[in-house]
Amino acid sequence: MADVAINFNGRSYRFACGDNEVQRLEEIAKYLTGKLEALTREHGNIGDERLMLMAALLVADELFDARADIDELLQGPSDKTDSTEPAATRRTAFG
């Protein structure tokens, strides 16, 4: 087992993971930290809990768009949408 430290807002959070998962966890943490830092720049210090929720919603929104894009690729474009427009530009909760 390995420990990975994730630093945000002056705090360090430690997570245990498998030795083969360290790089992936560090990459995910870096991505999430980038989201949190962008939100902090945009909204100021509004509290860790709110920042984490906002970041989680942003990442979930990206996931939903990615899943919709994959579904569209697997099923082909529907007659209801302009197939030249990427699905991610058609739906977004945080546009």
β-strand percent reads 5-15%
The total beta strand count reads: 2
- Please give the share of residues in helix: 55-70%
- Gross morphology: flat
Q: How many helical stretches? A: 3
The parts where pLDDT drops under 50 for at least 5 residues are: none
Q: Overall pLDDT, averaged?
A: 85
Please trace the helix and strand order, writing H or E for each element: EEHHH
Secondary-structure content class: alpha+beta
Adjacency order of strands in the biggest sheet: 1-2
Major β-sheet profile: 2 strands, antiparallel
Tell me the span between the first and last alpha carbons: 40 Å
Radius of gyration: 17 Å
How would you portray this structure in words?
- With 95 residues, this protein is of the alpha+beta class.
- Helix content is 57%, strand content 15%.
- The protein has a two-stranded antiparallel ribbon.
- The protein is flat, with a radius of gyration of 17 Å.
- The relative contact order is 0.10.
Task: Show the helix and strand layout.
Blueprint lengths: L1 E7 L2 E7 L4 H22 L4 H28 L11 H4 L5
Antiparallel strand pairs: 1-2
Helix pairs in contact: 1-2
Brief write-up:
This protein is α+β, with helices and mostly antiparallel strands.
Keywords:
two-stranded antiparallel ribbon; alpha+beta; single chain
